[in-house]
Amino acid sequence: MTQPDARQLIAILSLGNFVIGMGAFVVVGVLTPISEHFGISASQAGFMLTAYALAYTIGSPLSVALSGKFSRRSVLLAGLSLFGLGSLFSALAPTPLMLDFARVVTALGAGMVTPVAAAVAMAAAPAGEQGRALSKVFFGLTLAQVIGVPAGSFIGYTFGWQSVFVLVALLSGVVLLFVTRLVPSSLAFQVNTLSTLRDALLDYRSFLSVLFTATFIATFYVLYTYLAPVLTQGMGYGRDGITLTLIVFGLGAVFGNMLGGRLTDSIGPFRTLLIACASQVLFMPMFSFLPVNGIVFLSVTFVWSLLGWSFMVAQQTRLVAQTPQRQNVVLALNAAAIYLGVSVGSAVGGVIAEHLGMAMLGISASVLGLFGALHLIVSERWGPLSLQ
Q1: Cβ(99)–Cβ(93) below 8 Å
Q2: Residue 32 and residue 156: Cα distance in Å, rounded?
Q3: Do the beta carbons of residue 218 and residue 94 sit within 8 Å?
Q4: Which of 53, 110, 163, 218 could form a disulfide with 343 if both were Cys (CB 3.0 to 4.6 A apart)?
Q5: Model confidence pLDDT, tens digit, residues 29-84
Q6: Which of 88, 84, 92 has the alpha carbon at shortest distance from 108?
Q7: Percent of the chain at pLDDT above 70?
Q8: In this structure, are residues 304 and 191 in contact, taking their beta carbons and an 8 Å threshold?
Q9: Do 197 and 61 meet the contact criterion of CB atoms below 8 Å apart?
Q10: In contact, 291 and 245? CB cutoff 8 Å
Q11: pLDDT at 318 over 70
Q12: Residues near 77 by beta carbon (within 8 Å), at least 6 away in sequence
């Protein structure tokens, strides 16, 4: 098989992450239609995101370690196949329990794709360009926020929530065909085993830094998981208002990804992450005092997302620099920590929404943002390497 152009390869890996991101988080945009279809509360429907995230958290590091000796193409194909089947089963699920099970299957596939795609990008990139290749591959996940989730929300409200999962299944099939064609089976890669995973977990200083990802993302998802019902209750938004808000949030995430790279280069990852934490504390309380002027609401939503998603590049830079000898496993652990944060945040948000009401989610998330800043400072103080 001839070696593909590195840019072409990275583009299809980024597209794969776009589909993974859309399939994972489109639930946020169709939470209300799903809850209405099954006759359950929004907090009960939100559990499917918790189930997905927990499955990813546990499955991703294990699958990366257990498949460490197989070709990267084989692992990507297996992951995409599982992800596509899980998405199709989600569309056909007759009960909430079966939908949760289908989401677990989907998550197990996603957990094989995202970290392995990052490893393939770094292996295929020219010397000295691995960092840029990594950011381009993860750009697909960010782009899913600006295009995939809002589009999925619009489609779900218009044609039924099942149609979104069918679309995700079809898109994963398209990516699978491109991976078959473009990813070499003989690509050299860093071999990982269960012992590599064990060493990474036992390195408590590095693991403390990884866990900051979970803390930060949990702060986000206390509110973000239930954004659609919060907007319906607080702003009176339906399909179009929710879709517009998700687009604005997604645009903030895209520009935040770029901003994070610039800030990391200019002031370092620690200070960049501190700014991201501060944005959560400052801006999320607005969602507890709705309604507000529509322009003000969308402007604050954009800035909240912009500064918040500057987190991703800074944190990845920090982790790879700390443990370059285990970068594949650390990236898998970081991806797992993202979904651990999603599961914890959505679960906490569900409890708050159930017992205190949707209006308390913004204030509660802001308080958790203070804990995130403290975690960052502690992990920097006791971490394996200072990157200020």
Answers
A1: yes
A2: 10
A3: no
A4: 53
A5: 888 899 999 999 888 888 888 888 889 888 887 887 777 667 778 889 999 999 99
A6: 84
A7: 90
A8: no
A9: yes
A10: no
A11: yes
A12: 176, 179, 180
Lowest mean pLDDT across 45-49, 160-164, 246-250, 276-280: 45-49
CB-count burial class (<10 Å; 0-12, 13-18, 19+) for 126: exposed
Extract the tokens encoding 109: 């596939």
Q: CA angle 20-24-30, nearest 5°?
A: 130
Domains of the chain: 6-382 (1.20.1250.20)
Query: Whole-angstrom Cα distance, residue 140 to residue 118?
Result: 11
Helix axes 239-267, 149-159, angle to 10 degrees: 170
Q: Are 332 and 19 in contact (CB under 8 A)?
A: no
CB-neighbour burial class of residue 145 (10 A; exposed 0-12, middle 13-18, buried 19+):
buried
pLDDT for 343 equals: 83
pLDDT (mean) for 204-229: 90
The answer to whether the CB of 236 falls within 8 A of the CB of 291 is yes
Q: What contacts 293, CB < 8 A, 6 or more positions away?
A: none
Q: How far apart, in whole angstroms, are the C-alpha atoms of residue 341 and residue 203?
A: 20
Q: What is the per-residue pLDDT for 232?
A: 93
Residue 328 CB-half CA count within 13 A: 26
- What sections of the chain are H helices per DSSP? 6-25, 31-38, 42-45, 47-66, 72-92, 96-124, 130-143, 149-159, 161-182, 194-202, 204-224, 227-235, 239-267, 269-283, 294-308, 311-322, 327-355, 361-382
How far is residue 221's CA from residue 199's CA, in Å, rounded to a whole number?
30
